[in-house]
């Protein structure tokens, strides 16, 4: 609506810098980021509860890149919220999907918003946009609880994170809807023709095993139709996904519908249809297919809200496509990433049907897909962003949307500070945006910390102890070299000249050993559906979601080999040396397929030393006779590479990267396993400088989503530093400026009165799991006037 022509009667007016529409995960992260970056921000949510689909009205599990890629969890605000939820035990743990209807998650989100100064309005439905030329200047909102109409005037801009984007449509922003044909974006899985088909809508439900038999009676409003249609198919396997009779409590989403209709206007009819499908499905379980197994099971809860997967997608300066995500396209304006499979649901189904188009590598998300091309100040967050129908399959996961939402909120803050439009942030300030995000704990796959204000980058770093690559030793006995044995490398230096292994020759003859280096051959960056077959899990509890690594022996190509002779009765380190240094491929953070195998061929009477510890940089590997695939175990052999790759050296805390990936699994300072805590790391500055703020990044990144504390009912990440202190050395000696206990967060910022510091020291006193040692990804230091 043109602001000049407004005719609606307004009961209350408020003015804010930024209005965020919606209270889902994307909206919450965007609002917190905008608040932290200097915007007076309000958030309006039409429901009673925050969290959108993850909130207590639907209970969907928050997942993302770490469901399919090792060590890939999105960092930043979404990680803070999830860690805080773990601390407060703010989610219910149900079988299979870890879905959650605990109201405490809503409170965690609310607290995060309040701490960032965001005003939260529940039961406020945003209805109309007021525009002046290319600007949105206000939004009319219905306060449903008090029957009042409010006008939020916006000084700076709005973030539409409402899923449906009713306000953005009202403003006149261009959008897409349905399924784009192959011709439209050149996507390999696109259909021949455009269509209006979207993904279906689903409800969720909780079922539990009671102590007594429970009847299920089909609700009368659905019974007549069910009778008319006849008995449901009596197939034993026909039952809702995630219902397991041997469990106690299951969260299920059984059916879906509505993708062939208007998912906004026909919402009520779609819900009726899904309810019918759902009750019919449960009726089938209880009264037809699984009568005995389901005798004591009762339907405890059906979600009051229908979960919508897709409606409008607004057009930005760039539309992200399936091709982009599968190629992990490197955008100059990347502000976030994801890596879930391209999970596109069918529009309708008596059993929800997920079509998996591929498992893409970790992909980048461009800032240009986060604002409407038609407006100077209309930003987009969540599933309504500028992405194709197929790309939405992987973008729509909530951890991913949270991480991108933080990028959007930060861009909004920057635009306010610099007095520029949404597009100008891309055109003129993209590096500032990316560096701000990295400073605030986001991950951008394509860039590192170049922040000139970070004094730590100039320091010389030392530690009381360091774990180094050469850490492995024989602590788990020996295994006979009766089959090819060795290690699978997840980290390496730019070149490999040779390697050493701990070997025993139990014979009275010299034995010649042959060492082989081979590399996994990547056909393409993404894995297709067929490549799921035969995938194995490596370590940790069985992970239904993670595809693991393909260890088919035929897929590894030989790179180099060399020999060494082991004298009779020898017991020690054997050195292998290649005739010339082997150039190794650069580690690619987007891929978890880049792996080298280092294998020794079988030799009679020779044994290879085993290290019982688990290291992130290598796995024990062997190939049993007659097997087409390699086997891997979580422990290791005693081995060393020459030259040694960087491992736990102290200097890693200023190498510009604040996390690990599968192919750069230890990008942190690690204190030595054998050196008990406390352990310290010291940054000596080249000359005294004013320090008033320190950023510390600890390790909360687990290998897979099942291991994240929130999903395994733990209150803290195991490797996270719990107790620590920070001191600065001035001319008067060391002075403590921070003393912290029971920390559970990955990213901590400490502010204190500025000191003229010659050096800074972090002392780690305790880690949550005492089996781990000090582990710190990044340390930054700033003067009193540096930007937050
Ligand atoms: C059944 C189901 C299962 C799923 N499973 C998973 C899963 O396991 N893991 C995962 O990560 N993702 C899952 N997803 C996908 C994920 O839930 C969605 O992609 C995601 O929630 C979209 O986030 P969003 O913030 O854009 O929208 P939403 O989460 O839908 O949040 C939008 C919010 O905006 C509010 N709103 C809408 N219009 C207005 C308005 N006009 N004014 C004020 N407020 C408004 C809504 O009430 C809502 O709270 C699932 C989705 C469904 C439906």
Characterization of the model:
The protein contains eleven helices and 35 strands. The chain is α+β, with helices and mostly antiparallel strands. It is 16% helix and 30% strand. Residues 533-545 have low confidence and may be disordered. Bound molecules: flavin-adenine dinucleotide.
Protein topology:
Blueprint: E1 12-21, H1 25-36, E2 41-44, H2 77-87, H3 104-115, E3 119-121, E4 124-132, E5 135-143, E6 148-160, H4 166-171, E7 175-176, H5 182-185, E8 205-209, H6 220-229, E9 249-252, H7 267-289, E10 297-302, E11 313-314, H8 322-326, E12 334-338, E13 343-345, E14 354-356, E15 363-366, E16 378-380, H9 389-395, H10 398-418, H11 422-439, E17 460-463, E18 478-480, E19 485-489, E20 495-505, E21 511-520, E22 556-566, E23 571-583, E24 596-600, E25 606-611, E26 618-622, E27 631-633, E28 636-637, E29 639-642, E30 669-670, E31 679-698, E32 721-730, E33 733-740, E34 747-767, E35 775-782
Parallel strand pairs: 1-2, 1-6, 2-3, 6-16
Antiparallel strand pairs: 4-5, 5-6, 7-11, 8-9, 8-10, 12-15, 13-14, 17-31, 18-25, 19-24, 19-26, 20-23, 20-25, 20-29, 21-22, 21-24, 25-28, 26-27, 30-35, 31-34, 31-35, 32-33, 32-34
This protein binds flavin-adenine dinucleotide (FAD).
Flavin-adenine dinucleotide is lined by residues 21-27, 44-47, 52-53, 60-63, 97, 125-126, 161-164, 166, 202, 204, 253, 307, 309, 382-383, 396-398, 401.
């Amino acid at each position: 609506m043109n602001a000049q022509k407004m005719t609606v009667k307004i009961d209350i007016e408020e003015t804010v810098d930024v209005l965020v529409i919606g209270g889902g995960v994307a909206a919450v992260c965007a609002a917190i980021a905008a608040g932290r970056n200097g915007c007076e921000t309000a958030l309006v949510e039409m429901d009673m509860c925050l969290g959108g689909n993850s909130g207590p009205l639907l209970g969907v599990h928050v997942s993302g890149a770490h469901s399919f890629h090792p060590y890939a969890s999105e960092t930043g605000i979404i990680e803070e919220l999830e860690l805080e939820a773990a601390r407060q035990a703010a989610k219910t743990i149900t079988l299979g999907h870890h879905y959650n209807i605990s109201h405490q998650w809503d409170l965690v989100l609310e607290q995060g918003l309040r701490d960032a100064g965001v005003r939260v309005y529940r039961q406020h439905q945003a209805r109309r946009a007021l525009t002046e030329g290319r600007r949105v200047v206000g939004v009319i909102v219905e306060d449903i609880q008090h029957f009042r109409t409010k006008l939020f005037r916006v000084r700076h801009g709005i973030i539409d994170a409402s899923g449906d984007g009713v306000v953005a449509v009202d403003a006149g922003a261009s959008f897409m809807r349905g399924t784009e044909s192959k011709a439209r974006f050149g996507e390999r899985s696109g259909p021949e023709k455009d269509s209006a088909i979207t993904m279906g809508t689903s409800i969720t439900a909780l079922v539990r095993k009671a102590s007594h038999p429970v009847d299920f009676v089909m609700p009368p409003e659905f019974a007549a139709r069910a009778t008319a249609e006849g008995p449901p198919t009596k197939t034993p396997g026909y039952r809702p996904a995630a219902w397991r009779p041997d469990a106690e409590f299951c969260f299920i989403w059984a059916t879906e519908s509505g993708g062939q209709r208007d998912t906004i206007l026909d919402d009520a009819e779609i819900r009726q249809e899904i309810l019918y499908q759902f009750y019919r499905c449960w009726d089938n379980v209880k009264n037809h297919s699984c009568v005995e197994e389901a005798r004591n099971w009762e339907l405890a809860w059906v979600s009051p809200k229908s979960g919508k997967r897709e409606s409008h997608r607004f057009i930005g300066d760039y539309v992200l496509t399936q091709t982009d995500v599968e190629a992990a396209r490197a955008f100059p304006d990347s502000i976030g990433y994801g890596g879930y499979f391209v999970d596109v649901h069918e529009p309708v189904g008596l059993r929800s049907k997920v079509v998996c188009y591929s498992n893409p590598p970790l992909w980048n998300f461009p800032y240009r897909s986060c604002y409407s091309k038609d407006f100077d100040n209309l930003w987009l967050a969540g599933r309504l962003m500028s992405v194709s129908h197929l790309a939405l399959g992987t973008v729509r996961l909530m951890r991913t949307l949270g991480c991108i939402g933080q990028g959007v909120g930060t861009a909004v803050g920057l635009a306010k500070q610099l007095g520029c439009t949404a597009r100008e942030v891309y055109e003129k300030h993209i590096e500032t945006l990316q560096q701000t995000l990295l400073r605030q704990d986001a991950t951008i796959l394509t860039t590192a910390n170049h922040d000139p204000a970070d004094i730590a980058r100039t320091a010389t770093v030392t530690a009381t102890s360091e774990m180094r690559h050469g850490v492995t030793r024989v602590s788990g006995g020996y295994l006979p070299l009766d089959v090819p044995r060795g290690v699978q490398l997840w980290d390496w230096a730019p070149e490999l000249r040779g390697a050493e292994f701990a070997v025993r020759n139990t014979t009275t003859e010299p034995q010649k050993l042959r060492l082989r280096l081979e590399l996994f051959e990547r056909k393409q960056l993404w894995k297709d559906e067929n490549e799921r077959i035969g995938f194995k899990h490596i370590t940790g509890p069985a992970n239904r979601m993670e595809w693991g690594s393909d260890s088919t022996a035929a897929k590894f190509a030989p790179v180099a080999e060399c020999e060494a002779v082991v004298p009779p009765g020898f017991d020690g380190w054997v050195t292998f040396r290649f005739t010339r240094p082997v150039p190794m491929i650069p580690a690619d953070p987007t891929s978890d397929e880049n792996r080298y195998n280092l294998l020794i061929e079988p030799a009679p009477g020779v044994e290879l030393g085993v290290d019982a510890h688990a290291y992130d940089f290598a796995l024990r590997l062997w190939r049993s006779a007659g097997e087409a695939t390699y086997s891997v175990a979580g422990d290791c052999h005693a081995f060393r590479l020459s030259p040694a790759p960087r491992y736990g050296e102290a200097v890693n805390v200023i190498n510009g990267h604040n996390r690990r990936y599968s192919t750069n699994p230890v990008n942190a300072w690690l204190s030595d396993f054998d050196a008990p805590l406390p352990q310290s790391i010291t940054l000596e500055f080249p000359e005294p400088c004013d320090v008033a703020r320190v950023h510390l990044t600890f390790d909360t990144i687990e290998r897979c989503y099942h291991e994240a504390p929130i999903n395994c009912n733990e209150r803290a990440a195991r490797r996270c530093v719990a107790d620590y202190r920070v001191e600065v050395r001035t001319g008067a000696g060391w002075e403590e400026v921070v003393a912290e206990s029971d920390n559970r967060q990955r990213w901590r910022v400490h502010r204190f009165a500025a000191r003229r510091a010659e050096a800074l020291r972090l002392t780690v006193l305790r880690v949550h799991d005492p089996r781990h040692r000090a582990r710190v990804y990044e340390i930054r230091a700033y003067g009193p006037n540096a930007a937050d």
